[in-house]
Write a structure and sequence with these properties.
alpha+beta, 7 helices, 18% strand, disordered C terminus, Nitrogen fixation protein
């Protein structure tokens, strides 16, 4: 029997499951912006070393296998981080970014275009992000279960 392949988390950690780099953080400290790679690259020690003294997740967008119930953001059915991003952050692009992981992305599968319009502002580890980004990344005061996904509503 084939094992079920989990979707990719677009805010993943470099050493959890199957991992790829699909974007590079640019912009400013106050307004980060992701530049999407033309081809995702498997995470290697050489790529991780390019981050120098900072965490790779501060300069790379890394997708890794969704950890489902092992993740603090997962409620048993949905990624609450994706929900909070869609419900609390503004869109930052008007067209879908040229993202190489979209077909496998948990956020895309769950929230659709709404997640993609917000994704370029997300940096997995960003000590300098705005208050709203910190609040969205934390799990405080957000309902644990939602009846419909944003994709179903929109």
């Amino acid at each position: 029997m084939d094992s079920v392949k989990l979707p990719l988390c677009p805010s993943g950690q470099p050493k959890i499951g199957d991992t790829v780099v699909f974007g590079v953080v640019g912009g400013t400290v106050e307004a980060a912006s992701i530049t999407y790679l033309k081809e995702s690259q498997p995470v290697t020690e050489e790529i991780l070393a390019l981050s120098g003294p900072v965490k790779p997740t501060e300069i790379f967008r890394i997708a890794s296998s969704c950890q489902a119930n092992a993740c603090q953001h997962f409620d048993g059915a949905n990624c609450r981080l994706a929900m909070r991003i869609v419900e609390q952050l503004p869109t930052v692009v008007e067209t879908l970014p040229a993202c190489q992981i979209r077909s496998s992305c948990r956020w895309w599968q769950q929230e659709g275009k709404a997640a993609c319009y917000r994704c370029p502002q997300i940096v997995t580890n960003n000590s300098y992000s705005s208050q709203i980004l910190h609040e969205v990344a934390s799990d405080r005061s957000f309902p644990k279960v939602r009846k419909q996904t944003s994709k179903q509503i929109r």
